[in-house]
Design brief:
The protein is globular, with a radius of gyration of 20 Å. It has a five-stranded antiparallel sheet, with no helix packed on it. By secondary structure, it is mainly beta. The N terminus is likely disordered.
Length: 282
């Protein structure tokens, strides 16, 4: 039997205040988000995407990073306060946010189908049409909405560079410089631990073996593959993300990481390719 939950949620300057009573003991872990009125549906599935202080019977406990579990004793009344760490795109899609060094990154791939001004980004499935594009477009890997649910959309670089804006207000598509700062914070040359291993989702749910990654940074990089001039490749094996920087007349910068590697690699790619996108806060 699921426990009864009584919730009072107030929002003030992006701060969440919640009071919960009559909760059975157990661990709350995954997947509801305590922001934007997405309230928990039961006592076993809650993830905390922002830093919290939990006051239980006048005893404070601080959670300093994302994804911690919270164990509740029966009948306890407690208060939660914290600054919500998530953002929303123009379509209403919610993205958890992770702090990496001094940067705030989206912790999932972009999945928006409209530019920031509300104009539609065309979905292009035809292979010949995709390869000849010089304007923004998106697709799902192998045109599968199931892949889209897992990995988000693949965008050509023309969508990334469109002046109408691909990222939510206050955010930008990550640049070469952003990725350099990111890797500089995560790399540990003494221990030879590289950023690529710290940003990949742990385990083999999405990644092909052996997946040399532990998601230490909370970035949750997924191997969404890419779309070339026509076909799609490397799902399960590689993650590719666009950078906002051009690289010659027909190319643009990108970064990638693959299943066997700890390294984040920098490349130049054709602008017509379809890659995932991650955004960083301005």
């Amino acid at each position: 039997m699921k426990a009864k939950i009584i919730l009072i949620i107030l929002f003030l300057n992006n701060t969440v205040f919640a009071q919960v009573t009559n909760v059975s003991s157990g661990v709350w872990s995954n997947p509801a988000i305590w922001s934007n009125n997405l309230l928990p549906v039961d006592t076993t599935d809650i993830i905390l995407y922002f830093d919290l202080v939990i006051d239980i019977n006048s005893s404070c406990r601080s959670l300093q990073s994302n994804g911690h579990n919270v164990t509740i004793n029966p009948g306890v009344i407690f208060n939660i306060t914290g600054v919500a760490d998530s953002t929303v795109d123009v379509d209403g899609n919610l993205y958890p946010v992770v702090l990496i060094g001094t940067q705030r990154w989206m912790a999932k791939n972009l999945d928006v189908s409209h530019y920031r001004n509300g104009d539609t980004i065309p979905q292009v499935e035809d292979n010949a049409a995709w390869g000849n594009l010089t304007t923004g477009a998106w697709c799902y890997y192998e045109h599968s909405t199931a892949y889209g649910v897992e990995y988000g959309k693949l965008y050509n670089w023309y969508a990334v560079n469109d002046p109408r804006g691909l990222a939510p207000v206050g955010w930008r598509v990550s640049s070469n410089l952003d990725w350099g700062v990111f890797a500089g914070f995560l790399d540990d040359p003494v221990l030879d631990i590289q950023a690529g291993g710290k940003i990949k989702e742990e385990g083999l749910v999405h990644w092909d073996p052996p997946n040399a990654g532990d998601n230490n940074a909370g970035f949750t990089g997924l191997p969404g593959g890419y779309r070339g001039f026509s076909e799609c490749f490397t799902e399960g094996y590689m993650a590719w993300w666009w950078c906002s920087d051009p690289d010659g007349a027909n190319g643009a910068s990108s970064v990638d990481v693959y299943n066997q590697s700890y390294y984040l690699e920098y490349n130049g790619s054709e602008k017509s390719y379809g890659f995932s996108v991650r955004c960083v806060k301005n």
